[in-house]
């Protein structure tokens, strides 16, 4: 797996955008030890988690992670679905 060419890799971000089921089949006979199975599972969980983070950040454009981390107190970034798509905006929230 580590020596495999990267040209035919699957773009998990693009595949997740399709909203279809993604199955990763790993037959038990593929693993000779529990540690080997753990390494493969960790690899795929890391790839999936990374793809989810990229997808999340893409959905926030034109805002960036830095904008979210530095929001003023009582402000929120909103991502709202409406008839024509999605709206993204920052609002000031009421406080007592």
Shape: elongated
Flag low-confidence runs. none
H/I helix tally: 3
Main beta sheet: strand number and arrangement?
Answer: 2 strands, antiparallel
Class from secondary-structure proportions: alpha+beta
Distance between the termini: 57 Å
Characterization of this structure:
- The chain is α+β, with helices and mostly antiparallel strands and 96 residues long.
- Helix content is 39%, strand content 17%.
- The chain contains three helices and two strands, in the order αααββ.
- It has helices spanning 12-17, 34-59, 65-69, and strands spanning 75-82, 85-92.
- A hairpin with a 2-residue loop joins strand 1 (75-82) and strand 2 (85-92).
Secondary structure blueprint with pairings:
Elements: H1 12-17, H2 34-59, H3 65-69, E1 75-82, E2 85-92
Antiparallel strand pairs: 1-2
Using brief descriptors, characterize the structure shown.
alpha+beta; elongated
Précis, in short:
It contains three helices and two strands, in the order H-H-H-E-E.
């Amino acid at each position: 797996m580590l020596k495999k060419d990267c040209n035919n890799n699957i773009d998990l971000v693009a595949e997740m955008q399709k909203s279809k089921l993604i199955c990763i089949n790993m037959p038990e006979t593929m693993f000779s030890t529990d540690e080997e199975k753990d390494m493969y599972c960790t690899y795929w969980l890391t790839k999936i988690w990374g793809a989810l983070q990229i997808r999340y950040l893409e959905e926030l454009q034109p805002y960036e992670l830095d904008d979210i981390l530095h929001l003023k107190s009582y402000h929120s970034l909103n991502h709202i679905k409406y008839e024509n798509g999605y709206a993204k905006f920052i609002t000031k929230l009421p406080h007592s």
